[in-house]
Every structure is written in structure tokens, then in C-alpha cells.
Amino acid sequence: MAKFVKVMDSEDLPIGKSAIIRIGEKEIALFNYKGKYYAVDNKCPHKGAPLGEGRIEECIVICPNHEWRFKLETGGSLQNPELRTNVYPVRTKGNFIYIGLETDSRTAFGKDPSKLPSSLNFNISTVQQPINPDETL
Ligand code: FES
Fold first, then answer.
1. From CA 38, how far away is CA 96, in angstroms rounded?
2. Residue among 53, 55, 66, 84 whose CB has most ligand 1 atoms within 8 A, to mutate
3. Would 135 be classed as within a structural domain?
4. pLDDT, tens digit, for every residue of 96-137?
5. Could you tell me how far CA 102 lies from the centroid of its own chain?
6. Is the CB of 70 under 6 A from ligand 1?
7. What pTM did the predictor assign?
């Protein structure tokens, strides 16, 4: 079972925002897409560009570098069925978001999807650290 690490206050990740979280050796891109949270490896499996700076269309993250597309729910590539990025389970408890450190094809708990447009741009400025890497669910 995955160890869930408390990464951030959900108020700091409103709908349409993303964050890059560094946990140990991993960098994980966390998205709030229409009120649901999704976490994938930040490093694009093509040439390593930060997926956390990509844009989202229809629950697909588009790499900012060469625009390869990965499904947020499964990590699957739309260009190459044999290629995928890792996805991580996300949970919420109270106001906080937790990421499970073992990869998992399941996705987030979140609020009901909103009626925001399906194409959103995500811009993040800094890489963040977990609030408390030792606190687990
Ligand atoms: S680095 Fe992501 S598509 Fe090339």
C-alpha cells in the first residue's frame, strides 16, 4: 500500500493550478483540473521537460516542450501506446492534499467537476516541498 505524504494545503491549489512537488528523488506534477487532483511524474518520458508546466485539455496534459500528450488518469501517451508516465494516487483529508508514493493507475479524490472550460493553462513558479514528508495517512 502506498505511503501518502502530506504535500500541500488544498487552498493553495485552486482549480486550474498546478504545483511541482519534490519528494526525495521524485518530482511530481500535481494538478487541480476541474476540482479533481491528479499527480504524474513531472519529468516527461520523451526528453524530460516539466509536465507540471504543461497545459491541460480534456484531462490530458500536454508537454510544454514537444507537445506529447499524456492522460492524467492513466499516464498513457496518446502518441505512443507503449509509452506512459507514472501516475500517483492522490487523497485529501481535511484541507490537505496527500500523494501516494507508489505509482498507481488510480487517481484523485476531489470535489465534483466544475463547469470551467476544458482547456486550462497551468503556470507554476516554484518547486515545492511537502508540508511534512513524515506525516502519512
Ligand atoms: S520533452 Fe515532452 S514531448 Fe518532448
1. 14
2. 66
3. no
4. 999 998 764 444 444 444 555 555 555 555 667 777 766 667
5. 14
6. no
7. 0.77
The CATH number of whichever domain residue 123 belongs to comes to 2.102.10.10
Beta bridge pairs of residue 115: none
47-79: b (≥16 Cβ within 10 Å) or e: eebbbbbbbbeebbbbbeeeebbbbbbebbbee
Q: State the Cα torsion 70-10-92-18 to the nearest 10°.
A: 10
Residue 4 to residue 96: CA distance in whole angstroms: 11
Interatomic CA distance for residues 49 and 64, integer angstroms: 7
How many domains are contained in the chain? 1
If we measure between CA atoms, which residue out of 108, 94, 106 comes closest to residue 33?
Answer: 108
Q: Which domain holds residue 55?
A: 4-130
Q: Put residue 67 in one of left, alpha, beta given phi > 0 → left and psi -120 to 50 → alpha.
A: left
Atom of ligand 1 nearest to the CA of 68: 3
Task: Pull the grid cell for residue 100.
Answer: 501516494
Other C-beta atoms lying within 10 Å of the C-beta of residue 127 = 13
